Amino acid sequence: MKVLVTVKRVIDYNVKVRVKADHSGVDLSNVKMALNPFCEIAVEEAVRLKEAGTATEVVVVSIGPAAVQEQIRAVLALGADRGIHIETEADPEPLSVAKLLAKVVAAERPGLVILGKQAIDADNNQTGQMLAALTGMGQGTFASAVKVEGDELLVTREVDGGLQTLGLRLPAIVTTDLRLNEPRYATLPNIMKAKKKPLEVRAPAALGVELRAYSQVLKVEPPADRRGGIKVASVEELVDKLKNEAKVI
Ligand code: AMP
């Protein structure tokens, strides 16, 4: 079974993001970029399926500018076999990403596609679901456990009040939740080997997909600054402040 895993390059989650002065978006200049954490989990799951002998090949795909090849190489160092870079300077919306991925799915015919449940830049949480709709494949979103049994995929999902297990007929789509696994680090020899693994570059137009804007970001604002705390001298003062200043009781 071939596994297709999709990864997005995003601002490193340790970086404190700065909003641009004109409020049009987030400032990306001189900012450390990294693999989206949910995509790291997707990669780990794909590599584990290969190590278990369930998957025969792991193909990684990323859409974005030339710089995303850094993340593709990182995934190749983690154990993927080959990469596909769909090159665009734009940051396409989930529907465009899903349309591009649907073309890759049609060409590659994977038995399983694993995506992150969301990219931590815009928190869209849409691409996997849209890809399922476009390809007609079944989907198990927010997976906390995945098991292949014959031509069926068992996906455990953490839902309100418990765990739900879905049975999906393969080929299927999975999006990863935090508790699915703990991603590994790449070793130096594997980083060196990854440089020689195949990486194919495609243009969206060559896949027959026109990147469209389906929505427009009107404004991006940073969260309000936290006000400093104060010390109160007595319970009476605390109750008074909660009642008359904070007005929460
Ligand atoms: P989103 O719907 O934007 O929150 O993204 C959910 C998941 O879709 C991500 O974790 C990735 O696995 C995949 N994805 C989104 N954008 C891209 C992209 N530009 N290139 C590759 N995969 C992507």
From TrEMBL:
InterPro entries: ET-Flavoprotein_bsu_CS, ETF_a/b_N, ETF_b, ETF_beta_N, Rossmann-like_a/b/a_fold
Membrane-spanning ranges: none
Transport keyword on record: yes
Keyword Metal-binding: no
Residue ranges of domain Electron transfer flavoprotein alpha/beta-subunit N-terminal in the record: 23-211
SUPFAM superfamilies: Adenine nucleotide alpha hydrolases-like
Family: Belongs to the ETF beta-subunit/FixA family.
Name of this protein: Electron transfer flavoprotein subunit beta
Taxon lineage: Bacteria, Pseudomonadati, Pseudomonadota, Gammaproteobacteria, Aeromonadales
